[in-house]
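Worked example 3 (structure in, sequence out).
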């Protein structure tokens, strides 16, 4: 049976930057408006991390019962490896979603009631990514969903619950974070093209093929640099976001070098790290520019 270490690995902590970065960026956008509220930022972080843990366990469950993970190259999966019963992993996913829902309701009741609807859509999107009879992750829409949920919704939602409004700085920041988050999934799906092709999981990477998927990763990690230059219109301090360029180049290195399989795993971690660094640096710049 799976031990605590296996359950932690099954939650896929390497994907946590996808949850942390948008909250940091959204808080920076709220601070730019002069309305950062730190306890709401912390609650937004609980929502975001709980959602990503939930979606990771949900993917583990759904892919495991479909047999998609029977011959997987990446990190261990609880169901696919037989380390944990499928029912237990499903319960873990729903428990994480419940935690996200509770924190989200608190934020909604102190901000705007309709955020409850947004939260429900996010949870549904997390489940049906690989769950249900027609999972959209199997049809090539995973990257779009990640861009929307862990980019636009997460960043702008974080800004809104603190400042009570959103602005163009938040939108630009959301596009940048969404692009990085999608790039993480692109690198993941590039690694899994051989196994996904066999199991019928038609991800965007499978649709595009190896070469064009590598180009897509490069394009996505270039977007935040463009976003940084746009944010200079708000404050020159936004140029701090350019500090991420060496990390972004390093993150793309395994992709552009033609690496395959396990050799692509560093691209996932380093793309996620670049996303966090960009968010922290940009937030610092926006706070400095708002003083």
């Amino acid at each position: 049976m799976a031990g605590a270490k296996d359950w932690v690995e099954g939650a896929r902590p390497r994907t946590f930057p996808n949850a942390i970065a948008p909250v940091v960026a959204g808080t920076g956008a709220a601070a730019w408006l002069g309305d950062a509220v730190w306890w709401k930022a912390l609650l937004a972080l609980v929502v975001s991390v709980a959602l990503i843990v939930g979606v990771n366990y949900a993917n583990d469950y759904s892919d495991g019962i479909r047999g998609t993970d029977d011959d997987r190259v990446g990190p261990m999966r609880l169901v696919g490896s037989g380390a944990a019963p499928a029912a237990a992993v499903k319960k873990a996913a729903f428990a994480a979603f419940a935690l996200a829902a509770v924190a989200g309701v608190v934020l909604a009741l102190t901000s705007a009631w309709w955020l409850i609807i947004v939260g429900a859509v996010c949870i549904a999107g997390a489940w049906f990514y690989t769950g249900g009879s027609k999972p959209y992750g199997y049809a090539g829409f995973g990257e779009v969903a990640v861009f929307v949920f862990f980019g636009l919704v997460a960043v702008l939602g974080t800004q809104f619950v603190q400042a009570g409004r959103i602005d163009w700085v938040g939108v630009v920041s959301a596009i940048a974070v969404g692009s990085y988050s999608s790039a993480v999934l692109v690198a993941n799906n590039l690694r899994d093209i051989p196994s996904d092709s066999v199991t019928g999981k038609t991800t965007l990477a499978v649709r595009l093929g190896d070469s064009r998927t590598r180009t897509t990763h490069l394009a996505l990690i270039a977007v935040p640099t463009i976003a940084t230059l746009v944010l200079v219109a708000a404050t020159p301090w936004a140029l701090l976001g350019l500090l991420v360029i060496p990390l972004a180049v390093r993150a793309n290195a395994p992709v552009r070098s033609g690496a395959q399989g396990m050799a692509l795993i560093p691209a996932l971690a380093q793309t996620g790290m670049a996303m966090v660094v960009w968010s922290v640096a940009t937030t610092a710049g926006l706070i400095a520019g708002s003083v």
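Notes: The mean pLDDT is 93. The two ends are 54 Å apart (CA to CA).
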